[in-house]
């Protein structure tokens, strides 16, 4: 088993069309539907960055639908 404390690999923060965020091992092909952001670092650094920038975890389609229902803007 690979210990997280010894993990010195580089990760990238990725985002999908629903503006959901995740971490992905840098240099590996991304799954369909995911795009890299400009943020890279250790896994804990990437997760901390996600905590800072992904403040509304609802999918984009839900946020848009709710805005349409309330007559608000996107």
From TrEMBL:
| Residues in coiled coil | none
InterPro entries per the UniProt record, alphabetical: MbtH-like_dom, MbtH-like_sf, MLP_fam
Q: Which superkingdom heads the taxonomic lineage of this protein's source?
A: Bacteria
Q: What GO biological process, any one, is recorded here?
A: siderophore biosynthetic process
The GO cellular component terms are: cytosol
Q: Which Pfam families match?
A: MbtH (PF03621)
SUPFAM superfamilies on file: MbtH-like
Question: What sequence ranges are listed for the domain MbtH-like?
Answer: 2-52
What name is this protein filed under?
Answer: MbtH protein
